[in-house]
Design a protein that fits this description.
With about 375 residues, the protein is of the alpha+beta class. The protein has 9 helices and 7 strands; from the N terminus they run αααααβαββαββααββ. A 5-stranded mixed beta sheet has the order 2-4-5-7-6, with helices on one face. It has a two-stranded antiparallel sheet with strand order 1-3. α2 (about 35-65) runs antiparallel to α3 and α7 runs antiparallel to α9 (about 310-325). It is rod-shaped, with a radius of gyration of 38 Å.
């Protein structure tokens, strides 16, 4: 943006006007009466010429400026700086034939030599200041580009990791459910057939979501309800299911399939080991700016070291996705509230979509 020609040349002219004001104040302190308008015109035109020269230099040779070594600076840019300095003085002397003031009239060549003798070093300083300014801009742009590429690569890596986790989770859910259907086929073919139909609906939901990483909590809870309906047929009469969702968090966005692996784990390592009076409770509520999701179930508790270590693919997947989505701004805990009563609690930032999210469930139970 700073190298837009209008902005750059305007900045150069503004700098020249500041020098004009400085010289006018200095001349007043020495009781010299020089019109401010004349000084502003002279300095403004000089820096306008330099602004045009420097912008053309950047526009035509910026790649050489960014990569120039000492030899290039000496053999190319030093002669170019001398040429630009002389050319600038030629143009300026032509435009201001009455300067310098306080001296008898001089021919053009004499005035040019006079100004070159006085201002050549200053002109070279201006040229090299512009050169190193452009070089600094080049370094900054290169740094920002590398930073942008690194950020893009990091984002692509995270997305690839998230896709891998999703691909890991779906077959895990499918194989476990198919095993449940296979077990049910031996005792209740009609129930197994209905469970297979419900699995088909759940798979349609999963496919419809595609690679969506976030969905409304209402979608996740509807998916869980369908999953619980399947498990209810498998464990008929053995588990009492409870769901309690705070209406205020109904539209909160959560990672896709964040609860299903936890509920599946509750059945696999707790409820499936009971013959009766199992309890499964799922709750969702808000605490300040935090969404709290909890799954509580009866079973064998966490007394066994094997059970404590047996988080399985599902829970490890949930924890990995929480860390990747929210960093340290989340928590996952599993604890035994009392004998044979285990609770998993997930907390994450309470966020709502900026625009309505397409509903991906609604296929029926």
């Amino acid at each position: 943006m700073i190298m837009h020609p209008l902005l750059f040349i305007s900045g150069a002219v503004s700098l020249g006007l500041l020098f004009a004001l400085q010289e006018w104040i200095y001349s007043r302190s020495w009781n010299e009466h020089v019109r401010l308008s004349l000084l502003a015109e002279a300095w403004g035109v000089q820096f306008f010429i330099w602004g045009v020269f420097c912008w053309i230099l950047w526009w035509t040779l910026r790649s050489r400026i960014y990569t120039a070594n000492f030899k290039t600076m000496l053999c190319l840019f030093f002669p170019l700086g001398l040429f630009a300095s002389v050319l600038e003085e030629v143009i300026w002397v032509l435009l201001f034939p009455r300067l310098p003031m306080g001296r008898p009239p001089m021919p053009f060549l004499q005035r040019l030599l006079f100004h070159l003798d006085v201002e050549l070093i200053d002109s070279l300083v201006l040229f090299w200041s512009a050169f190193f300014l452009f070089r600094g801009i080049g370094y900054y742009q290169s740094y920002r580009e590398k930073e942008r590429v690194a950020t893009q690569l990091q984002s692509q890596l995270v997305q690839a990791q998230m896709r891998a986790l999703r691909m890991q989770l779906n077959p895990h859910f499918l194989f476990n459910t198919m095993n449940s259907i296979s077990s049910l086929m031996r005792i209740d073919v009609a129930a197994a057939d209905l469970m297979l139909e419900q699995l088909s609906r759940l798979l349609r939901i999963t496919l419809h979501r595609g690679e969506a990483q976030f969905i409304p909590l209402s979608d996740e809870m509807e998916f869980i309800e369908m999953y619980l309906a399947m498990q209810d047929r498998r464990f008929a009469g053995r588990v009492r299911q409870q769901m309690n969702v705070d209406p205020h968090v109904h539209d909160a966005i959560v990672p896709t399939m964040i609860l299903q692996p936890i509920v599946e784990n509750a059945y696999a390592h707790g409820l499936s080991r009971l013959t009766s009076q199992g309890i499964l409770s799922i709750q969702a509520s808000s605490e300040n700016s935090t969404l709290r999701l909890s799954v509580t179930n009866t079973g064998l508790g966490l007394r066994s070291a094997a059970l404590r270590a047996s988080n399985g693919v599902g829970l490890a997947n949930v924890q990995d996705r929480l860390r990747m989505h929210y960093g340290d701004n989340q928590s996952f805990s599993i604890s035994e509230l009392e004998d044979n009563l285990v609770q998993v609690v997930v907390t994450l930032p309470l966020r709502f979509p900026e625009r309505p999210i397409e509903q991906t469930t609604g296929y029926g139970a």
